[in-house]
Design a protein that fits this description.
InterPro entries: Anoct_dimer, Anoctamin, Anoctamin_TM. The chain is an alpha+beta fold. It contains 29 helices and 14 strands. The protein folds into 3 domains: about 180 residues, no CATH class; about 475 residues, no CATH class; about 55 residues, no CATH class.
Length: about 900
């Protein structure tokens, strides 16, 4: 082990004395590592502190860059934690990292220590080789022909070239430490950008032990465990400058300032996103998210335009709505007495009381609905196919083409390595690697699946509770609003009906339940995913994604599925009503205008509520927490508010930071695809939200969060398959909504099959309502005394109407379904089959016509691979010539590849 000592004075130093012969490979880096993990000394005097500006991303020598920062606070459990920190930091220095400490007297709170970490060239080169980080070896000489015709039209939306493309374009290859002179290394201090540097350091931090090697406990390692047990309070890379001003150090970039100025401002909403700069500063994983979000928002523009046109069509045909005119007229709707909608507390009512809801329903339930449902089925295919092409282009431009294979082979999760004590031979790498036994894997998977099913069952139980609330409270609202159901001169107004009041309150309660269950399940999903011990980070994220999406799918969409496909479908008829689970709660009926308007209400409340609450939570909560946390530092001069303290006061971009963003957008995607036939304005609301979302996410990431550790990702991961699945499901759900929730099919059947309608829809309302004899209504279903309106006279009014197609009283098949019912059902099923086949046929044809990878990208990938091989070959040839020349064989003309099967030293021997 190493003995760590402190040195009195202004700066704390570390003296490393190797005693282990196996750890003597990097002594040159141990001797000058600045740190203090033993005794802690006071910092510089107040005079020195005033002279020295701490707003810097370099060590005190102004040369070595701070690649990572650890912070900790001494507490009552300090001895154990101090021992862990001492061993952990000694092991970090043991692998070549350089440390420098800031004493607690230097911090604003007077109790926080900061350990600054610098990775020298030798460490960076070693681990860049291990991680196969791609670096430039030659300037890209392939001409870029991606300019589109009439490109000048996009000039107002462009950003400056230095912002859009902050780095030159190079051919790249995985770094090989033994061939370092092959790569374009002008300056070793700047060759690896900060994003790669902090990625390498975090890789080391995640695998470094905090125990002695002889202890043999493989589980005791990694910064994540040290953060969880409180040994350290934070671990993060530094932002390069303050977001509102450029760095004063000429050697430091000001990418954060550029991002804030050109990307995070709301008034930049019409500008393109600087994706290359985002990738350079935050890494490919965050860059690919914003690329996807921006592309999704662009595609939403087309859906929003078409949806708005369909809504305008419904508005312009408002006055041609014959069935609403009949409902509202005194001659038709005013003379139709409807049967009670609930037992005991609901009285008889006239059809014209639903006049307003009928007009409102026409805005969304018209001929354009069918066209829009078909259009969205095609739109979602175009969106997914064009995104694949965009993603393929980014994979090439960002050197991610071969990333998935590297991810699977090299980057095992530290938790997996620590908890899997068994070892087996990897057939690909021919190296021993940890593995999880099949029995343990099956047991953990079964437990995980059972937990997911338990929570999904809990959601379904909550939804059933909301349905029971709807059934129970409807009678109460009907009793309270019985006057509003009979007259236009009521206190609550003509627009509030028991149906609307029940729907709105139930939707709000459902939204509150959704938020509570989300908060609880998020922690459960992380726990059960950790319990499964996934092998790689990619596998971990995919498993967590599936669990969270299954939960969110049921949580957000179950109420919409109920209204769309179950409400009003299993009601029965007067005298033979259906009840919920045999209770005294009668199943809900649809309004005579249909359930579509209620589905629209449910969709608007849940979708809009989620988006508004999400934006408030994302923007306001971090800002308030940062404002409160930095309240002391605001009174200090800038030169005394250190860069590491500024970032320490920011919020952590946690494990689920990007995951939550994806989940929010995918749930929104479900709302605008699965149920879009009920609300054509949904894409417009989503477009407005996403324009704000892009800038809110950019603003909070740039100003309110610590800089995340750069990570790679070649795609949006499991979300791609989820989007594909939802695209297929959306065709089915919209076909069923048009067929069974909308009144479109019954109207079309009446229009073309009933000669009395004569294409004018006159008489449709009377045709769609069945007749029931009031005297046959059982006592348990009859309204209580005083519940009926004043105009109701049982001696005059002997029948009531209800929404169905059944034979009237006195018919030999009274109360059985009429032939018209079966005609309509056949038409609905035929419509579903035709619509699904047409849309799926177009979808598959479009997907076949549009290749996933552009031909230009394929050619560039092949060209780059060819050049990499050629330049590597030429490099080896030149290297061989130099070696031969140094050995005095200047006249040797032996081709270096004549003995391809021989090792290099044998090939040299043969050549000589």
């Amino acid at each position: 082990m190493h003995r760590i000592t402190g040195q009195a004075g202004g700066d704390s130093l570390i003296e490393m004395r190797p005693t282990d012969p196996f750890n003597d490979g990097m002594n040159g880096y141990h001797q000058h590592a600045s740190s203090s993990t033993g005794s802690l000394q006071q910092g510089p005097s107040p005079i020195d502190k005033q002279k020295h500006s701490k707003d810097s991303v370099f060590f005190r020598d102004g040369v070595r860059r701070i690649d990572f920062v650890l912070s900790y606070v001494d507490d009552k459990d300090g001895e154990r934690k101090q021992e862990r920190r001492r061993l952990y930091e000694a092991n970090l220095v043991n692998v070549g990292l350089e440390l420098e400490i800031e004493d607690k007297s230097e911090s604003d709170d007077g109790k926080t220590y900061f350990v600054k970490i610098h990775a020298p060239w030798e460490v960076l080169a070693t681990y860049a080789d291990v991680l196969k980080i791609k670096v430039p070896f030659k300037a890209n000489d392939i001409p870029n022909n991606s300019e589109m015709p009439m490109n000048w039209l996009s000039t107002p939306f462009r950003l400056p070239e230095k912002i859009m493309h902050p780095e030159p374009d190079f051919f790249t290859a995985p770094f090989d430490k033994s061939k370092s002179d092959f790569f374009l290394i002008d300056d070793k201090d700047t060759f690896f950008p900060p994003s790669n540097r902090n990625r390498i350091v975090y890789y080391i931090l995640s695998r470094c032990s905090y125990l002695r090697e002889e202890c043999g406990d493989r589980d005791k390692k990694g910064i994540k465990r040290l953060l969880n047990n409180g040994t350290y309070t934070a671990a993060f890379p530094l932002h390069d400058c303050r977001y509102w001003t450029r760095s004063k150090d000429a050697n430091c970039e000001s990418d954060r300032y550029s991002l804030y100025k050109h990307w995070a401002g709301f008034f930049c909403f019409f500008k393109e996103q600087p994706l290359n700069l985002i990738r350079k500063y935050y890494g490919e994983k965050i860059g690919i998210y914003f690329a996807w979000l921006g592309f999704y928002t662009e595609m939403l523009l087309f859906a929003a335009i078409v949806g708005t046109i369909c809504f305008i069509f419904g508005f312009l045909t408002y006055d041609n709505n014959q069935w609403s005119k009949e409902i509202c007229s005194e001659e038709v709707g005013g003379n139709i007495v409807m049967c009670p909608l609930c037992d005991k507390k609901c009285g008889y009512w006239k059809l014209n009381t639903t006049c307003n809801s009928s007009w409102q329903s026409h805005l969304f339930d018209n001929v354009a609905t069918v066209f829009f449902a078909i259009f969205m089925g095609i739109w979602v295919t175009l969106f997914l196919e064009f995104w694949k092409r965009r993603q393929a282009r980014l994979e090439y431009e960002w050197d991610l083409v071969d990333f998935e294979e590297e991810q699977q082979k090299l980057q095992l999760r530290p938790e997996y390595e620590a908890m899997c004590t068994n070892r087996k031979l990897n057939r690909i790498t021919q190296e021993m690697e940890p593995y999880l036994p099949v029995t343990s894997k099956c047991a953990r998977t079964c437990l995980s699946g059972a937990t997911v099913l338990l929570w999904i069952s809990l959601i379904i139980a909550c939804i059933i509770g909301v349905i029971a609330y709807r059934l129970a409270v409807y009678a109460a609202f009907a009793s309270i609003m019985k006057d509003s159901a009979t007259s236009d001169l009521q206190v609550v107004g003509p627009y509030i009906t028991p149906q609307l009041a029940t729907s709105v309150t139930a939707s709000c309660i459902n939204f509150i339940i959704i938020m509570i269950l989300n908060f609880m399940y998020e922690r459960v999903a992380i726990w059960i995913t950790d319990m499964e011990i996934p092998k790689t980070h990619l596998e971990y994220e995919n498993r967590l994604t599936v669990k969270m999406f299954l939960f969110q799918f049921v949580n957000y969409y179950s109420s919409c599925f109920y209204v769309a496909f179950f409400k009003g479908k299993f009601v029965g008829y007067p005298g033979n009503y259906a009840y919920m689970f045999g209770s005294n709660l009668r199943n809900e009926e649809c309004d005579p205008g249909g359930c579509l308007i209620e589905l629209t209400t449910q969709l608007v409340i849940v979708m809009t509520g989620k988006q508004v609450w999400g934006n408030i939570q994302e923007a306001l909560v971090p800002w308030l927490m940062n404002w409160w946390g930095s309240r002391k530092a605001r009174s200090h001069p800038e030169s005394l508010y250190s860069r590491w303290e500024q970032d320490h006061d920011l919020q952590e971009f946690g494990q689920l930071g990007l995951f939550d963003e994806y989940l929010e957008m995918v749930i929104q995607f479900g709302f605008i695809t699965l149920f879009v036939a009920s609300f054509p304005l949904a894409p417009l609301l989503a477009l407005i939200n996403n324009i704000i979302e892009v800038r809110v996410d950019a603003w909070k990431l740039t100003t309110q969060f610590r800089r995340p550790v750069a990570a790679k990702a070649h795609s949006i991961g499991a979300w791609q398959e989820i989007l594909n699945g939802m695209a297929v499901l959306s065709v089915v759900t919209n076909a069923f909504i048009v067929a069974f929730t909308s009144d479109m099919i019954p109207r079309l059947v009446y229009m073309y099959a009933d000669p009395e309608g004569a294409m004018t829809m006159k008489g449709y309302i009377n045709n769609s309502l069945s007749v029931f004899n009031i005297s046959a209504i059982p006592l348990a279903n009859k309204p209580d005394d005083g519940e009926n309106p004043p105009w109701f006279n049982s001696s005059i009014i002997t029948t009531c109407r209800y929404r169905d197609y059944r034979y009237p009283p006195g018919h030999e098949r009274q109360y059985y379904h009429t032939m018209q019912f079966w005609h309509i059902l056949a038409a609905k099923l035929a419509f579903i089959i035709i619509m699904e086949h047409v849309v799926f046929l177009v979808k598959f044809f479009v997907a076949w016509m549009i290749p996933d990878v552009p031909s230009e990208v394929k050619a560039r990938i092949k060209r780059e691979r060819y050049l990499v091989q050629e330049y590597l070959h030429n490099y080896e040839v030149e290297k061989l010539k130099i070696q031969l020349s140094q050995n005095g064989h200047t006249d040797c003309t032996c081709p270096p590849m004549i003995y391809p099967s021989l090792p290099k030293h044998e090939m040299l021997s043969e050549c000589l």
